[in-house]
Amino acid sequence: MKEKVLITGGTGSGGSFLAEYILENHSEWEVWCTNRWHSTGNLKNIEAIKNRIIVKECDLTDLSCVIRLLQECMPSKIFHLAATANVRICFDNPLSVYLNNVVSTMNLFEGIRMVCPESKTMLCSTSETLGNPQEFPMTESHRCQPVNPYAASKMSSESLAYAWAQSWGLKIVITRAFAYLNFRRKELFSTAFALQVCRIEANKQKVLKHGNLNSTRTLIDVRDVVRAYWIALDKCEYSTPYNIGGSDILTVGDFLEILKSKSKVKIICEQDKSLMRPKDVDKQICDVSKFNTLTGFKPKYTLEESIDYLLEKCREEVKNES
Prior knowledge:
By secondary structure, this protein is α/β, with parallel strands linked by helices. It is 41% helix and 18% strand.
């Protein structure tokens, strides 16, 4: 029988890419994915692989559901990607975002402790936990100073990982992903821009709306990120964070200009105040030497290849829109 890998949030934007990566590169594993119990009709992300994976409804905020899932699956590897991760929305629903992410993580760790304590688990955290440091590049030793409720929930989740590892010996690897390109995650600035460019090309929209263009980011392809996740769980030490990110540095405005240069039509832009965050992370420049040196990891995709792929998929998405 195949060993089993469980991806919480496996039908989501990042989890679906991870499931695809495992099926394509590690076919000796049986892939299980959780889906939010109240969104079972939205399985578009896994349409191409739905017959090759096992999808289970699971409310991670309900410990009994988590325990039943783990007892049925008995996974050897667990990737915890499930979370409410929309930073803009977290300002409107701070308690909901915080409680969902923290309680879900605590229930998962507690379920693992009770059912399958020898499982290896990866906690997907975020560079947002580091806030706005004064020194760059941002290393794992920077003090966490979250500036939004989503980041605070992830910092708390990291604390839970340390606590359950120290108290009960759970094997938990912590990754902090920096900004990445992922056409399935429509609230990311990169995807939101690309979709608007494609709608303007298709004469379905007139003006591209944007928020803050001055923030600086390093970018990486989501396909490289999920490959890094798999490597991390095999090669990284437990209970210590690892940065995962790219080396291409540009502002949000620079990225928009690249998209405009690749557009088939002229793009007119204007700022939309509703897209501005009460508090932004101004600069995220990552130091990934700890992870890359330990694992030998190198991204496969260049920034231009990633942007071209993003536009290709967004054009397909817009073409299918009613």
